[in-house]
């Protein structure tokens, strides 16, 4: 009997990298799934490819879904400015409408097709930007919908949605990544493109906070 398979949503960011590393450490063959959704830049796609290769993914599928045509987010509409004044309460303009709902639907479809038992997502609801589709109640609700709406869910146990970082702080995530050997130096979190992270957007601030909390050195380069 072969090893079990897991589909891992791999954005190229810190959280998805640690999530993928945990899937590998739990003995799953990794089928990485990256969504090219029309984001502001392609830098994180390069990171996703590097992480998938580093972790020895059995396959790395990159799917293009142009959510920029829908709009409504500073991450897909370059006419909108990415906020750089600090993380604030509420849902920011960098929220991409229903992004995780769309991504998880594709991931479950892929999991059914390849016979994967689990889908891993790096969603986090502690140190995050306030996105509603990162909350535990959303993950639970989607898991139930996936069981009801798939052949795997009807005939067998269905595809399990695993969010291993859900209740961890960014510092905890960095510590866990270091302990598990996650290739965090290959990741990209900045909302802007380029060869150096801006250091000012919400994602950069949260990442830097995590490394500071963990007492670790972030090896990627920053403008600031």
Strands in their spatial order, largest beta sheet:
3-2-1-4-5
Count of distinct structural domains: 1
Strand content: 5-15%
| Poorly predicted parts | none
* Number of distinct beta strands: 5
Number of helices: 7
Topology pattern, helix = H, strand = E: EHEHEHEHHEHH
Helix and strand content put the structural class at alpha/beta
CATH homologous superfamily title? HUPs
Cα separation of the termini: 51 Å
Using the 3D structure, state the CATH architecture. Answer: 3-Layer(aba) Sandwich
Quote the CATH topology: Rossmann fold
Query: Shape, please?
Result: globular
Major pleated sheet: 5 strands, parallel
Helix content: 25-40%
CATH class: Alpha Beta
Keywords:
alpha/beta; 7 helices; Rossmann fold; single chain; 224 residues
Which helices and strands appear, and what pairs or packs with what?
Elements: E1 5-9, H1 14-25, E2 29-36, H2 43-54, E3 59-64, H3 99-114, E4 118-120, H4 136-148, H5 151-155, E5 160-162, H6 170-180, H7 202-214
Parallel strand pairs: 1-2, 1-4, 2-3, 4-5
């Amino acid at each position: 009997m072969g090893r079990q398979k897991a589909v891992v949503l791999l954005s190229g960011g810190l959280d998805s990298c640690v999530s993928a590393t945990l899937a590998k450490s739990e003995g799953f063959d990794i089928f990485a799934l990256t969504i090219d959704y029309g984001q502001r830049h392609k830098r994180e796609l390069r990171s996703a490819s590097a992480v998938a290769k580093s972790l020895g993914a059995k396959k790395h599928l990159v799917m293009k879904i142009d959510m920029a045509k829908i709009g409504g987010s500073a991450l897909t509409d370059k006419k909108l400015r990415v906020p750089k004044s600090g993380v604030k309460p509420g849902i920011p303009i960098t929220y991409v409408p229903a992004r995780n709902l769309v991504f998880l639907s594709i991931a479950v479809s892929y999991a059914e097709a390849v016979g994967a038992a689990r889908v891993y997502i790096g969603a986090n609801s502690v140190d995050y930007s306030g996105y509603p589709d990162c909350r535990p109640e959303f993950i639970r609700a989607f898991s139930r919908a996936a069981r009801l709406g798939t052949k795997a869910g009807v005939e067998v146990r269905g595809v399990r949605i695993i969010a291993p970082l859900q209740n961890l702080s960014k510092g905890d995530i960095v510590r866990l990544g270091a302990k598990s050997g996650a290739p965090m130096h290959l990741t990209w979190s900045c909302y802007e493109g380029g060869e150096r992270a801006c250091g000012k957007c919400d994602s950069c601030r949260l990442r830097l906070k995590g490394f500071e909390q963990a007492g670790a050195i972030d090896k990627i380069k920053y403008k600031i």
